Amino acid sequence: MTKPLVMIAGGGIGGLSVALTLQQIGVPCVVFEAVRELKPLGVGINLQPNAVRELYDLGIGADVLDRVGVPAKEWALVGLNGNDIYSEPRGELAGYDWPQYAVHRGKLHMMLHDTFVARAGADAVRLGHRVTGYRKNSDGSVTALIERADGTTTEETGTLLVGADGIHSAIRAQMHPDQPPIHWGGAVMWRGTTQTTPIRTGSSFVGLGTHKHRMVIYPISHPDPDTGLAQVNWIAEVTYDDPAARDSGWFKPVEIDDFAHHFDGWEWDWLNVPDLIRGAEVAYENPMIDRDPVSTWQDGPVVLMGDSAHAMYPTGSNGASQAVIDARVLGACLLEHGVRPEALAAFDAKLCGPISEVILRNRGAGPFGLLNMVDDRCGGEFENIDDVIPPDERAAFMKAYQAAAGFAKEALNAAPATIPAGAKVSLVEEA
Q: Rounded distance, CA 285 to CA 254, Å?
């Protein structure tokens, strides 16, 4: 009898969350990551309380998360005339048992990698190894087909294969060869970070503008105690009526002058958007893209998770959070069913349908749908939002989204741990 081996294709946030979970529950695993060297790439993302809870249960607590981000205090939408549409406290201030964190994506990624390597050993992550496909074997095992960074190829056989290789997943492409191309609805985002004074509470997530022309602003570091300045993440977004007229290339550096003019005149006594944008050292352009949902994330001993399974618009600030949740639910299914395809089937049955609905909900603007409603009802200009959308209607809209995305407060606070403390998978019967 030999111990099982779970192979993970992709060493991003999702893949490393799976790896940390497997290490925690005693399942041997190896991560194959295409890049030769990991670097702290990207800008700001949010971790919702449901994901922070899971990180805490992995032994990654506030002391660690405070080094890569900052707890969020408020989520707010503001109209073009600077008046509030909706605001609510976030994390523990909202009554959750766990905070919400706004973090630097690259720093979070590196922290997860370093934590896993410290616990599992350097050999557990193989850089410069891209999984290009898989072969299901007659004995029930699966073989990962791997291309090394030097162009040579190799194979690795294990018990299960987890596809955590992102929106351009080779594993998903093999599993669903007839899937449509990546979907782009016409929105282009320009992203950057600027050292500046945080607005409102000092740790507020603010969506500003209309559903086709908006800014998103939030800090991803604690303020410097001497200057009061923090690293503030911003996203400038414009939706074009003719998506085919734009290059939809993925995440590339861009000159600030190429897009800053879209936000000329966005100035209030509490915020100067042109100064915020032009204060960035570098900016990146990428389209807001996702993939159509698929009917299943499983093919025998192979399963998809994270963006490979459910790449979604970032309108709900829950893409990375869902990847963490995927990892933990997968771990719970392995605890219940063993390191077998039956565990993957249970994972698929639990998440594929509901999270596919979140993909479509985010495509419909997610929580930013309130901006659509304001635009439809008054063209975006108002004096008192209660005259446009009554308070009860605004609150009901947000509560429905939180429930769909899995971080409704009452349900989350009352839920037992996804993985009980100290739980281990029994490997005795695994071949």
A: 6
Query: CB of 326 within 8 A of CB of 301?
Result: no
* Class of residue 177 by CB neighbours under 10 A (exposed 0-12, middle 13-18, buried 19+): exposed
Residue type, 118: A
Residue 192 token pair:
């950057």
Question: Residue 246: what pLDDT?
Answer: 56
Cα→Cα distances 240→171, 182, 213, Å: 32, 17, 9
User: Which residue spans within 204-273 are E strands per DSSP?
Assistant: 204-210, 213-219, 230-239, 252-254, 267-268, 271-272
Confidence of residue 405 (pLDDT cuts 50, 70, 90): low
SS3 238: strand
E-strand stretches of 316-409: none
Q: Choose among 306, 312, 415, 317: nearest CA to 358.
A: 312
| Angle formed at CA 319 by CA 168 and CA 223, multiple of 5 degrees | 120
CA–CA separation, 111 and 60 (whole Å): 9
User: Is the pTM value of this prediction over 0.90?
Assistant: yes
Looking up tokens 């992102």, which residue turns up?
166
At 313-364, the pLDDT tens digits run: 877 677 899 999 999 999 999 999 999 999 999 999 999 999 998 888 777 6
